[in-house]
Amino acid sequence: MTNSRPPFTGRDAAGAGALLLSVNLICAGLGAALGALVGALVPLLLVGFFIGFFLGIYVVARRFRGV
Predict the structure, then answer these.
(1) Can you say how many angstroms the Cα of residue 54 is from the centroid of all Cα atoms in its chain?
(2) Considering the entire predicted model, what is its pTM?
(3) Cβ–Cβ under 8 Å, residues 45 and 31
(4) Quick check: 52 and 23 in contact, CB under 8 A?
(5) What residues have CB less than 8 Å from 11, skipping those under 6 apart?
(6) How far apart (Å, rounded) are the C-alpha atoms in residues 31 and 8?
(7) 3-32 pLDDT tens trace
(8) In this predicted structure, what is the pLDDT of residue 67?
(9) Please, which residues have CB within 8 angstroms of residue 4's CB and are 6 or more apart in sequence?
(10) What Å distances lie between residue 20 and 2, 8, 23, 41, 57, CA to CA?
(11) Could you tell me which of 5, 2, 1 has the C-alpha nearest to residue 65?
(12) Residue 1 has what pLDDT?
């Protein structure tokens, strides 16, 4: 019986990490931008960071589900 999926490689792990980091930084940047507009830079930056972390985990899980 053959395995239909290719093995998980270091390249896949690096891609997952880069995807997680990029989603996290984008959300933190959006939170900071919104915070700068309303005068609450640090609180909204932190909110964006935490939202980005959990959203990043979701995106990575969806992207690498079959691997």
Answers:
(1) 7
(2) 0.80
(3) yes
(4) yes
(5) none
(6) 34
(7) 676 777 777 788 889 999 999 999 999 999
(8) 66
(9) none
(10) 31, 17, 5, 23, 6
(11) 5
(12) 53
